[in-house]
Design goal:
The complex is a heterodimer of chains A (86) and B (249).
Chain A lengths: L1 H17 L20 H14 L1 H4 L5 H6 L3 H13 L2
Helix pairs in contact in A: 1-2, 1-5
Chain B lengths: L9 E5 L4 H12 L3 E6 L2 H13 L3 E6 L5 H15 L4 E4 L14 H29 L2 E6 L2 H5 L5 H21 L4 E8 L5 H4 L3 H10 L8 H12 L10 E4 L6
Parallel strand pairs in B: 1-2, 1-4, 2-3, 4-5, 5-6, 6-7
Helix pairs in contact in B: 1-9, 3-4, 4-6
Chain lengths: 86, 249
C-alpha cells in the first residue's frame, strides 16, 4: 500500500515536471534518454522529490545519490530504501 | 518617452537608493515594470519607492544587506510569496574600499567581495528557480571597466567586478535553454557619489583618456540595462556591454 502510494507520487511529479504522458513513465524509463529531460530538468526533478518526500527522506538528496537516479525505478527504490532504513 | 515593454513585469533592483541603481529603478518603472527597490538603507530605497509611486509608477522597497545570504533568502521568500516569480533581477549593489594591496585590510577585501560579488550569487540562487519554471527571465549584473582592465588601488573592487563577468557567463550558459538571459554591464566613469570622491585632478586625468572627453551619466547605464531587460533582447546572453564613452577600446 505504502509503496504504491510512493510510486504514484513519484510518477505524478515526473509527469508534471517533464510534461510527459503517464504511459511514458514506465519503471525503466530513463529521464535523459526516454523522457526528454536535460540537465536542468534532472536538477529540478531532484528538488521536487526532496520537497514531496521531505518526511520520508529527511533532508536533501546528495549529489552522488542524485547521480544514481537515472530511471523512474531508481527514484522509487531510493525512497523505499530510505523508509526501510528508519 | 516612456514605452511600456516591461508592463506587468516584476523587477528587483539592488543598490537602488542612489546613483546608477536609482536611475535603473526609475527607468524600469517608466517602462511599466513593478520595481522592487532594494538598498541597505531603509530611508534611501523607501524614499525612491515613494517618489516613484507619487509619479504614478508601481514600486515598493526592502532594506536588505545584500552581503547576507540569510537576509537575501528571507526577503526573496517574501517577494516570491507575493508574486510567485520575479521577471527581472538587476544585481547592482556595490561598494568601494580602495587601498593599495600593500595597505589593504582583509576586512576591506572581504566586505567588497561579499557585497559586490557574493550578493549576485545570493539573489540569483534565490530567484532563478521560478524564472526557470516560467521560461522567462532577465538578469543584469553590474560589472565595471575596472573588472576588465584593473585599477590602481582597487584589487578588491576589480576582483569582484571581474568575478561578476565569470559569474554572468556561467549562469548564462546554465539557464540559456529556459528563455533567461544573463548579461553584465561594464560602466566606465559615471557621475555618481562613488566617482565624486575621486577629486578634480584625478577626474581631469581620467578625461584625457576617454575618447568622448566626458563622464557618463547614470541614465546612460540605465538605458543599456533597460535594453537588455526588454523582450527584444531575448537572443543576447552572456555578454558584457561597456558603457564607457569609448574608454575600454
Amino acid at each position: 500500500m505504502t509503496s504504491n502510494n510512493i510510486e504514484a507520487r513519484v510518477r505524478k511529479i515526473i509527469v508534471d515536471q517533464l510534461d510527459v504522458n503517464e504511459e511514458q513513465v514506465t519503471p525503466e524509463a530513463s529521464f535523459l534518454d526516454d523522457l526528454g529531460a536535460d540537465s536542468l530538468d534532472t536538477v529540478e526533478l531532484v528538488m521536487a522529490f526532496e520537497d514531496e518526500f521531505k518526511d520520508e527522506i529527511r533532508g536533501e538528496i546528495s549529489e552522488s545519490e542524485a547521480e544514481k537516479m537515472r530511471t523512474v525505478k531508481d527514484v522509487i527504490d531510493f525512497i523505499n530504501k530510505k523508509l526501510a532504513s528508519e | 518617452m516612456s514605452d511600456q515593454n516591461l508592463s506587468g513585469k516584476v523587477c528587483v533592483v539592488t543598490g537602488a537608493g542612489r546613483g546608477i541603481g536609482k536611475a535603473i529603478a526609475e527607468m524600469l518603472a517608466q517602462s511599466g515594470g513593478h520595481v522592487i527597490c532594494v538598498s541597505k538603507s531603509e530611508e534611501s530605497c523607501g524614499t525612491l519607492a515613494k517618489e516613484l509611486r507619487a509619479e504614478g509608477f508601481s514600486a515598493e522597497h526592502f532594506a536588505v544587506d545584500v552581503s547576507s545570504s540569510a537576509e537575501v533568502t528571507s526577503v526573496c521568500k517574501t517577494i516570491l510569496g507575493k508574486y510567485r516569480s520575479v521577471d527581472v533581477l538587476v544585481n547592482n549593489a556595490g561598494i568601494a574600499r580602495d587601498n593599495l594591496v600593500l595597505r589593504m585590510s582583509e576586512q576591506d577585501w572581504k566586505d567588497v567581495i561579499d557585497t559586490n560579488l557574493s550578493s549576485c550569487f545570493h539573489w540569483t540562487k534565490a530567484l532563478i528557480h521560478p524564472m526557470i519554471k516560467k521560461n522567462w527571465g532577465r538578469i543584469v549584473n553590474m560589472s565595471s571597466i575596472v573588472g576588465i582592465r584593473g585599477n590602481f588601488g582597487q584589487v578588491n573592487y576589480a576582483a569582484a567586478k571581474a568575478g561578476i563577468i565569470g559569474f554572468t557567463k556561467s549562469a548564462a550558459k546554465e539557464v540559456a535553454s529556459r528563455g533567461i538571459t544573463v548579461n553584465a554591464i561594464a560602466p566606465g566613469f559615471i557621475q555618481t557619489d562613488m566617482t565624486k570622491k575621486l577629486g578634480e585632478t584625478v577626474v581631469a586625468e581620467i578625461l584625457k583618456n576617454i575618447p568622448m572627453k566626458k563622464l557618463g551619466t547614470p541614465q546612460d547605464v540605465a538605458n543599456a540595462v533597460k535594453f537588455l531587460c526588454s523582450p527584444g533582447a531575448q537572443y543576447i546572453t552572456g555578454h558584457v556591454i561597456s558603457v564607457d564613452g569609448g574608454l575600454g577600446m
